[in-house]
Structure formats: C-alpha cells, structure tokens
Design goal:
The chain has helices at about 5-20, 35-45, 75-85, 95-100, 115-120, 125-140, 150-165, 195-215, 220-230; strands at about 1-5, 25-30, 50-55, 90, 145, 170-175, 240-245, 260-270, 270-280. With about 280 residues, the protein is an alpha/beta fold. The protein has two domains: about 1-175, Rossmann fold (3-Layer(aba) Sandwich); about 185-275, Pantoate-beta-alanine ligase, C-terminal domain (Pantoate--beta-alanine Ligase, Chain: A,domain 2, 2-Layer Sandwich). The strands form two sheets. It has a six-stranded parallel β-sheet with strand order 1-4-3-2-5-6, with helices on both faces. It has a three-stranded antiparallel β-sheet with strand order 7-8-9, with helices on one face. The radius of gyration is 19 Å and the shape is globular.
Length: about 280
Amino acid sequence: MRTVERIAEVRAAVGAARAEGKRIAFVPTMGFLHEGHLTLVDEARRRAAFVVMSIFVNPLQFAPTEDLASYPRDRDGDAAKASARGVDLLFMPDAKEMYPREMRAEVIPCALHRRWEGEVRPGHFAGVLTVVAKLLNIVQPDVAVFGQKDVQQATLVRAMVDDLAIPTEIVVAPTTREPDVLAMSSLNSYLSDAERGRALALSRALFAMRDAFDRGERRADALLTAGRRVLDGEPSVRIDYLALANGTSLEPVETAEPGTVAMIAARVGRTRLIDNLVLGA
C-alpha cells in the first residue's frame, strides 16, 4: 500500500493505475477504522482492481457545538488496518491540503436533508456533500462504496451524483454489527461498559420493528410503538428520533412496505449514535 498526503499524488497514482486498464474503487472515511469500514474495502475490492481509501476528519461537517478536536483518530493503526485489508492507495490529507483557502463554493442539499439528521445537525450535510464532491473529483473513481448505517448520507450522496452527472457508481454496503448487534461505529469507543449495554436498546428497537413487520404489521404507528416499548426500558437513552421513512425520499410513511427504512438516533451518555434497518430486506 502506498500512503500519500497530497492531491497531486492521488491523481498521479490513480492515473497510472487507469493507464494499466484498472478499474478504480474508492472508500471515503473519517478514520478510526473498524470492521465496518474494512467490509467496505472488501466490497470495493470485489468491484475494482485498484482500491483507494481516504481518511480525513472533515471540519466542514462539524457544527460549532460539536467537538472536532475530540473526534477519535489513530493514524498509524488505520494505515496498518487498511494495508492488511488490501487498500492500494491511502490518501491522508490534512485540512490545509483539502481547504487551502476559505471556501468560495459548497454543495447545498435540497429537500432530502431537511428531516432527521439534517434537522438535528443543521449544516451537516452541506459539509458532507462538499467534501464528498471534492474527493470524487480528486479520485475520479469508477465506483465509490458507502455504508448503510449512514443511510441519509448515502441517499444524499447518491442524489448528488445523479443530479450533478458525476460519473461514479455509488454502492451502499450493509451495516456491519458487533456480535451483540450494536452497529459498528467509531463513536462506540466513547461508550463506557454500562453505556454500551444501554446502547443496545437502539438496535433492539429496530429489530422489534422488523419482527413486527415480518409478522405482517404494516401500520407505521404500530411498528413505531413496538420500537418505543423497547426504548422505554432504557429511559436514560435520549431519543432524537425514531422513524419509518420511504427508502428513496426518506419522507415519513404511514404504511410500511418492503424497502421502508426504520431509523433511530439517540444519545447514550455524551455519545450520539445512529442506526437503521431496511424492512423486508
């Protein structure tokens, strides 16, 4: 694996791989890699001969009330994990490389961002889409792989790529879970042992909704009630939202169908977690 820090180096390495006739896959991350990230690399490897990963904690997507400095980082450990999993090119820029001057343009999401994460974290998705658009322009991959856990992010990226005619296929890979079914996240490292036990209520609530759907329940209010019953058992878990949304528009639904997304965001202690399941999948 080759590790680079400059945009020009990425373009040169990708250009050389493409000149050899290799298909290019890209996995953008913010680092502190875990098995969930590495399964995205596996998916990228299945789809292309040359895999690029980026690790960049993007300041544009953090609100002033969110602590950018405390976001977990492990530069050496991340490089070792990426290399062991088969990444060909690791791009690890700093903020000055990505944003050498004050930004004069950004990507503003349309209606898809107004609910859920966008409502709780105003401005977040403009920062996400801006950095993803820049990274796609730098790498120019044939395919880019994102994770289902960040379902609203993946939906918005797919819409941006389609609307702006960016010639990259967007693949959304399933969420990777711990043995106790907690969705893997870099932020899980913030949880104490007691908080981790309480955090399991998020995935249990989603699975309760899925089980009710599988038994034939289609009324959104009844499915949400099944999830809330689980959450009521952990009153210290503070819910931002529990919702059922259309799998394409992410608008709330009154009647669930295969492809409807059950979504949750909650705070456990000082840690904010998100998770989702696609019903009928």
